[in-house]
Amino acid sequence: xxxxxxxxxxxxxxxxxxxxxxxxxxxxxxxxxxxxxxxxxxxxxxxxxxxxxxxxxxxxxxxxxxxxxxxxxxxxxxxxxxxxxxxxxxxxxxxxxxxxxxxxxxxxxxxxxxxxxxxxxxxxxxxxxxxxxxxxxxxxxxxxxxxxxxxxxxxxxxxxxxxxxxxxxxxxxxxxxxxxxxxxxxxxxxxxxxxxxxxxxxxxxxxxxxxxxxxx
Length: 216
Description:
This protein is mainly alpha-helical and 216 residues long. It has helices spanning 4-18, 24-30, 40-43, 59-66, 72-95, 116-119, 128-141, 149-154, 165-168, 175-183, 197-215; strands spanning 46-48, 55-57, 97-99, 104-106, 113-115. The strands form two sheets. Strands 3-4-5 form a three-stranded antiparallel β-sheet.
């Protein structure tokens, strides 16, 4: 559920702690690979979340199959799915009011509301959540400086193979092409009307701290 730059920003926070214990580029690549898979259900080990209608990775299965601190790509993929799980359960679900009777999503901090369909629509369809992510992209690359442009330049457009068919059967669009589409949507300012940067970034830091304590 988090977007490309959120996954990279989270990975960078983890890297601050683990340093040279992993291959940096392989670890960052691993953090992008699950979202490139054609079969997202399989690549994300989907199971029901704590709230009906949401899905999260089955972390028991993920840990069994991907947790390997000696394999930087696999450890990166594990990191990606760890963030997916905790981002949905501890940030996204609590961040909004989910009015199931009227199929509405409400931001309790400013009373703005959207239909569930509009909120989760694809970026090409003007999805509200992705509009919020686009504002955060501006913050992560700009004011926040959580991701260095040099890091984006160093990562290969075609990410390494994993040896696992579900992860190696990928969309034609590379992560870089997808990111360039998002960054070309001309979001030059931050409003916080959908996703509040401070609340979002604090949640990323808390999840990173939890990951470091539990998984290293």
